[in-house]
């Protein structure tokens, strides 16, 4: 009787163990099945997170590169502006030094030409007419002052020009002379890096005297053509090594044509000349 009870207990215990094992197997199968179902979702989420991280990293990298490029461009602009300011300062100092070196006293020589026409009035018995183009020789001296830009300047100077020609009589000479005090505005354009060579133009005015004279002792009571008045100067120039200045110019004298108030009729052209000035 006891053995029968023991056997029944053993059978019940075995049955319970079998049920427990079956439950564990079922739970394991269900867990594996759930894991198998959730795996693709987890992988997709991980991939999405990885892509998002890469995109954030790439975006941050692009922002850093953009900021770096902007900073580089900013520095380049600053450097360019500093170079420009330095260049302007150096140019300004160079022009100031040039202006100082080109200012001062000067002397010069002049070679010119003028056309002269003269004839006597009917009441005077002079032998012939005058039609000549005498060469004029002259000197000048003055002072020139260049402004800080080294390009423009004012020049103050006095000059004299004179020449000879055949007079009314075959054995006589007549002379033409002019003297003036002038002020000119000079404009020079440097053509080299060191600003020592330049091309330029100039113009100015002055007050002066000019006249024609010949020895006519037999005629009394009449003056020969001469006058005081305004003088006009225009020309072009070339400066070499700061100190040597060559000019091609014209001068409009005060008297170019006379009336019957003088002993004889006189008419002239403008004076055309070349000159050389040396800066002392």
TrEMBL record:
Keyword Signal applies: yes
Keyword Signal listed: yes
InterPro entries per the UniProt record, alphabetical: OMP_Helicobacter
Keywords noted in UniProt: Signal
Endpoints of the signal sequence: 1-21
Protein name as annotated: Outer membrane beta-barrel protein
